[in-house]
Design a protein that fits this description.
314 residues, mainly alpha, 1% strand
Length: 314
């Protein structure tokens, strides 16, 4: 019998809360519609079809919900009422989902599968997929700004929103994605691959950690530790992702493998080789957990989560 990691139940609690909140999100409620309804147009304040269905389709595909879990777990380091941070956790999943919809487009990575299901543009068409990504990105910020915590603790909430926006933006995740697509076929270098990994992946894993701490009113030392943890966790996560693209199980991952080499992507194995990438991922996880050592038992969940990155299959 497979032994569950000690963090399993806590992870499940966070994940279930996020799943339920996303399922019940008022603006996205309803059954899937592939074509727009006949006139008259939707009522003011409603999302038109098939945009609503396209947004809901990708947002509710089965996933780890890692980023929202990271936000809720980081909040819990300081405060116990983590349910108050749920709108921000859901918003992060919206931002992550928007990025995946756009990543899969023919003009980007041209993937037909996402989480074991047809990519959004294969179901709804490229035009609606683009708009679904745009819709989720904007809905994320609407959700955070409308959250009760943004009224009750505006300074903390605005700091968290700014952290998320900057790390998801043109100098963060989008910057990494830009180099990722523009440098396909270029000669790989350690400097380039680190920049791409830092921004394409690590920024959107650091954002939830720091945002969760900000929402909870963490100290400057805790915020510094959170940034270091998130950065090294993100680097390790992308290194493992690169390795899984080489030797992972496509069925388990829910997407095609071998695509990085086929497209000439700049990856960590392309620079350092497979074995050194494994060692570098282990070292990155070690640095991540070391950053939280002053937290004692409060950092156990996040440290265990980082270690699980090394053995993930998808």
């Amino acid at each position: 019998m497979e032994q569950k990691p000690p963090t399993h139940d806590q992870y499940q609690s966070y994940q279930q809360a996020v799943e339920e909140a996303l399922q019940e999100f008022p603006l996205l409620a309803g059954n899937q519609v592939l074509r727009a309804a006949a006139l008259p147009p939707p009522a003011e304040g409603e999302i038109p079809e098939p945009l609503r269905s396209a947004m809901r389709y990708s947002l509710l595909l089965p996933g780890k919900r890692l980023r929202p879990v990271l936000l809720l777990a980081s909040y819990t380091v300081v405060q116990s009422d983590w349910q108050h941070a749920l709108p921000f956790a859901c918003a992060l999943e919206m931002i992550h989902t928007y990025s995946l919809i756009h990543d899969d487009l023919p003009a980007m990575d041209d993937d037909e599968l996402r989480r074991g299901k047809p990519a959004n543009h294969k179901v709804f068409g490229e035009n609606i997929a683009i708009l679904a990504g745009d819709g989720l990105l904007n809905l994320a910020y609407e959700t955070m700004l409308a959250a009760p915590m943004s009224t009750e603790k505006p300074t903390q909430a605005m700091a968290a929103i700014r952290e998320i926006a900057s790390r998801a933006g043109a100098c963060g995740m989008i910057a990494g994605q830009t180099l990722d697509v523009m440098l396909e076929g270029a000669s790989p270098s350690a400097e380039l691959v680190r920049y791409i990994h830092q921004h394409k992946t690590a920024d959107l894993l650091t954002a939830p950690v720091v945002a969760g701490l900000l929402l909870a009113g963490a100290s400057p030392d805790q915020l510094t530790a959170g940034r270091v943890f998130g950065t090294h966790l993100g680097l390790a996560f992308q290194m493992v992702d690169d390795l899984l693209d080489i030797g992972g199980d496509a069925l388990a991952m829910g997407k095609q493998t071998g695509m990085d080499a086929a497209r000439g992507k700049i990856t960590w194995p392309a620079v350092a080789g497979v074995e050194q990438t494994r060692l570098d991922a282990q070292q990155a996880v070690a640095k991540a957990t070391e950053a939280l050592s002053p937290w004692g038992s409060s950092g156990i969940f996040l440290c265990d989560l980082a270690r699980q990155t090394l053995v993930r299959a998808k």
